[in-house]
């Protein structure tokens, strides 16, 4: 369970970082 939640957190961080990169590219 802890490993799964940890992987989900990493995935969320990756998605947010990608969204930030896209926002930076737009600006």
Low-confidence runs of at least 5 consecutive residues: none
Order of helices and strands: H
Let me know the average pLDDT: 91
Helix content: over 70%
Number of strands: 0
Approximately what portion of the residues adopt beta-strand conformation?
A: under 5%
Structural class: mainly alpha
How far apart the termini lie comes to 39 Å
Radius of gyration: 12 Å
- Counted by DSSP, the helix tally is 1
Q: Main sheet, how many strands, which sense, barrel?
A: none
Shape: rod-shaped
Features:
single chain, 1 helix, rod-shaped, 27 residues, mainly alpha, 0% strand, 93% helix
What does this structure look like?
It is a single chain. With 27 residues, this protein is mostly helical. The protein is 93% helix and 0% strand. It is rod-shaped, with a radius of gyration of 12 Å. It starts with a helix and ends with a helix.
């Amino acid at each position: 369970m802890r490993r799964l939640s940890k992987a989900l957190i990493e995935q969320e961080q990756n998605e947010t970082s990608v969204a930030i990169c896209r926002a930076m590219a737009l600006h």
